[in-house]
Design a protein that fits this description.
Largest sheet: 5 strands, antiparallel
Number of strands: 12
Strand order of the largest sheet: 4-5-8-6-7
CATH class of one domain: Alpha Beta
Radius of gyration: 20 Å
Oligomer: single chain
Strand content: 15-25%
Order of helices and strands: EHEHEEEHHHHHHHEEEEEEEHHH
Distance between the termini: 50 Å
Shape: globular
CATH superfamily of one domain: CO dehydrogenase flavoprotein, C-terminal domain
Helix content: 25-40%
Structural class: alpha+beta
CATH architecture of one domain: 2-Layer Sandwich
């Protein structure tokens, strides 16, 4: 690990105003410390935001069916919140299935959605070819590398690294909004517009400026008691998704009045299956309909020999998640 300066500002405004090139924010540090040890990230300055304004950004607030969550809320706190578990269980599910208890206690919601890929060619600096680490160097995964865990949706000829998180799939499905404090003051951004596809610049993973600070997430309609997050992985605990689905339903009898779908483990960004949703709305909640929607969701998949299984796995995961969600009370 390389030497760095350490700052701990008192307020969010101080953190943004005093931001300098080469700096990085951190709170729980559960991803940052790993990547610094691996020499993948080399910040000259770390800005500790964990205690900004004595907990001002650590909160869970309901107003009717709207939910607002502070970016410094620990994963465990949100996962264990009784109202969240009752009113929108897929948020709690996604956090419970995301990591070990120790990491959930340390990690904060804001940092969780910004975690970097687990692609081995990104995390191992002995590989020269990584367009995320060294723009323009190529992609070792695409150049004969091991690709079993890589993405099949949202890929490009520059990068096929999978977005690793779980919580973000629920946020994108729920039309969440990100509240940001930047050099020009506060602003809001659709969560769906936070992450960017790995096209010309795979190293640029979000639309945030370096000094931008996420302060909260808001969900206008978070009242989805019939919702869940299903995660399929190589082992039952502490593993990243091979395929996952965040699904939410509102039913009118056996007719789907509304549906939300976020897919994980299969895409380069948190993936909203909007065309599949459109195919389901107004139709019956049957396995045949769910299978048809899953075909639509994966119609644009691009695979390698090693990760082609993810298309069928992703479809089955989506169908199972929808079937289980439809059986819930709501």
């Amino acid at each position: 690990m390389r030497p760095f300066h350490y700052d701990k500002p008192a307020t969010a405004t101080d953190a943004v105003t005093n931001f300098r090139p080469g700096a990085q924010y951190f709170a729980g540090g559960t991803t940052m410390v790993d990547l610094m040890k691996l020499d993948v990230m080399k910040p000259a300055r770390l800005i500790d935001i964990s205690g900004l304004e004595k907990g001002r950004y650590d909160f869970i607030k309901w107003s009717g069916k709207s939910l607002r969550i502070g970016a410094l809320t620990p994963m465990t706190k949100l996962a264990d919140d009784d109202k969240v578990r009752a009113r929108v269980p897929m948020l709690s599910d996604a956090l419970w299935l995301a990591a070990s208890p120790q990491i959930r206690n340390m990690a904060r919601i804001g940092g969780n959605v910004l975690q970097r890929t687990r692609c081995p060619y990104f995390r191992d600096t002995s590989y020269e070819q990584c367009n995320k680490r060294k723009p323009g160097s190529g992609c070792a995964a695409l150049d004969g590398g091991v690709t079993r865990h890589h993405a099949v949706l949202g890929t490009s000829d520059k990068c096929i690294a999978t977005y690793p998180g779980d919580f973000a799939q629920a946020l994108v499905a729920l039309d969440a909004v990100v509240e940001i404090l930047g050099e020009d003051g506060p602003r809001s951004l659709r969560f769906a517009d936070l992450h960017v596809l790995p096209e010309a610049r795979p190293d640029r993973e979000t639309t945030l400026a370096p000094s931008d600070l996420i302060i909260a997430f808001s969900i206008e309609d978070a009242d989805f008691p019939r919702s869940k997050y299903l995660k399929i992985r190589d082992r039952e605990s502490y593993a990243y998704a091979l395929a996952s689905t965040a699904s939410a339903l509102r039913m009118d009898g056996n007719t789907i009045a509304d549906v939300r779908l976020g897919l994980g483990g299969v895409a380069t960004t948190p993936w909203r299956a909007r065309e599949a949703e459109a195919a389901l709305r107004g139709g019956p909640a049957t396995e045949a309909q769910f299978a048809r929607a899953a075909d639509i969701a994966f119609a644009g998949a691009s695979t390698t020999d090693e990760n082609a299984f993810k298309v069928e796995l992703g479809k089955r995961t989506m169908v199972r998640s929808l079937l289980e969600t439809a059986r819930m009370e709501g």
